[in-house]
Amino acid sequence: MKKSIFSILALAAAFSVVFSSCGSGNSRKAGKDDLQGEVNISGAFALYPMMLLWAEEFEQMHPGVTINVSGGGAGKGMTDALNGMVDFGMISREIKPSEIEKGAWFIAVACDAVVPTIHPSNPLYSEVLKRGLTRRQLEQIFITGEITRWNQLYPGLAGAPDEAISVYTRSDACGAAETFAGYYGKHQEDLLGIGINGDPGMAAVVQRDVYGIGYNNIGFGYDQQSRKPVEGLGIIPLDQNENGVLDEEEDFYADVDVFSDAVKNNRYPAPPARSLYLAGLGYPQNPAARAFVAYILDQGQALTSAGGYVALPEELRQAQLQKLQPENE
């Protein structure tokens, strides 16, 4: 089976890339009794890298199935799903009551988190790693606008740059922004900053701006191969107890595996930690789509750590499997 492999950097350049596993030769011929069909998925960049891993493994298990995955944000994913344009929308926020009223059927598939980001060449970065930023400091940057310059973060610190903070937020309707705003009890429209489209775009703009600050899903903040923060991005630690020092129990940002464990064990707050969902227009009628979700909730959970995500807690996973049963249609 021949596949095109898209790196995160290529995704950042393209902002929205469609992954289509189209086979060649006999390797894509289904077995006599094998599952066949096509599954179309669009939406949240948060789930995009993980969905590619799941799609690849599922297609290897079922050569008669083609899974097409495209990004575009949670808002696009929900719109596409409710309009019947795709089998599932990838949603990186809680499902709204108004969407349920329109027929949205949804199921949790993994957990992840949103992290604030900074350029590692920022002169203040080493201090940020030692002290972290408090919820209040981030709120004063992204919500109230009380902090506008880098030397305001740690008053009295010698050598702090007297430079304006370039604040970036998301311009597309997305779960990352809604979840990040939820950390302050607000909504996406309350976030200040220059609007940037997509997770890849947000990562790229902070990578280019030494005095920039933004936020990303962990799938775009950490590199899947090195397990470290993506080159040119620094993850901002949270000083949760607000004592002005990043204590040992708060220091879990060096690699994605340690960070994911902190999410799993509720050491990183929720929000900005959250569940990730697939949503469709009613109970999925496409047999291939149902089988794909069943796989995600079973063997697919073992792949989450490889993708830098967090497997569903067992109680939640069992509840999702129950939702997949036909009697719960």
Report what the structure shows:
The protein has helices spanning 8-14, 48-61, 74-82, 97-101, 125-131, 135-142, 175-182, 198-208, 218-221, 256-264, 287-297, 304-307, 314-323, and strands spanning 18-20, 36-43, 64-70, 88-91, 104-118, 166-170, 194-196, 212-217, 234-235, 273-281. The protein has 329 residues and is of the alpha/beta class. It has two domains: 8-111 and 273-328, 3-Layer(aba) Sandwich (D-Maltodextrin-Binding Protein, domain 2), CATH 3.40.190; 114-264, Periplasmic binding protein-like II (D-Maltodextrin-Binding Protein, domain 2, 3-Layer(aba) Sandwich). Strands 1, 2, 3, 4, 5, 6, 7, 8, 9 and 10 form a ten-stranded mixed sheet that branches. Strand 2 (36-43), helix 2 (48-61) and strand 3 (64-70) form a beta-alpha-beta unit. The model is unreliable at 1-31 (pLDDT under 50).
Topology readout:
Layout: H1 8-14, E1 18-20, E2 36-43, H2 48-61, E3 64-70, H3 74-82, E4 88-91, H4 97-101, E5 104-118, H5 125-131, H6 135-142, E6 166-170, H7 175-182, E7 194-196, H8 198-208, E8 212-217, H9 218-221, E9 234-235, H10 256-264, E10 273-281, H11 287-297, H12 304-307, H13 314-323
Parallel strand pairs: 2-3, 2-4, 6-7, 6-8
Antiparallel strand pairs: 1-3, 4-10, 5-8, 5-9, 5-10
Helix pairs in contact: 1-8
